[in-house]
Amino acid sequence: MAADYYCADSENGDHIDDPSEDALFELISDLNGTDNTFVVIQPDEDEPAWFASVAVLETGGYEIVRRDTGRREHDVIVETSIGQIAGGLSKWLTTRAT
Question: 95: part of which helix (H) or strand (E)?
């Protein structure tokens, strides 16, 4: 079954349709500096208008990129708390699903 709104894919091949905040937390928790360095969340379509990504930084923490061309948004932040990242992404993604 395809995602209703968006899907999350990690570098190691994990895929979740319409991930919850808890699922995002788990995906981010599984990131590491060797073979699973990022996760991307976006609509499951060709040339999506928006995306969010979380990547492990070599210096510690995570880089979060949120981009929405339709709304002219482009944010890049660094965060260390996985709970803060998952919660913030959940809120941001909710506005994309409406």
Answer: helix 82-96
User: Does the pLDDT value for residue 88 go beyond 70?
Assistant: yes
Q: What are phi and psi of 16, to 5 degrees?
A: -135, 125
Angle at 42 between CA 38 and CA 43, to 5 degrees: 155
Ramachandran angles phi, psi of 77, nearest 5°: -135, 160
Dist CA 86 CA 21 (whole Å):
6
Q: Is residue 31 predicted with pLDDT exceeding 70?
A: yes
The pLDDT value given to residue 98:
61
Q: Which two tokens stand for residue 40?
A: 């991307």
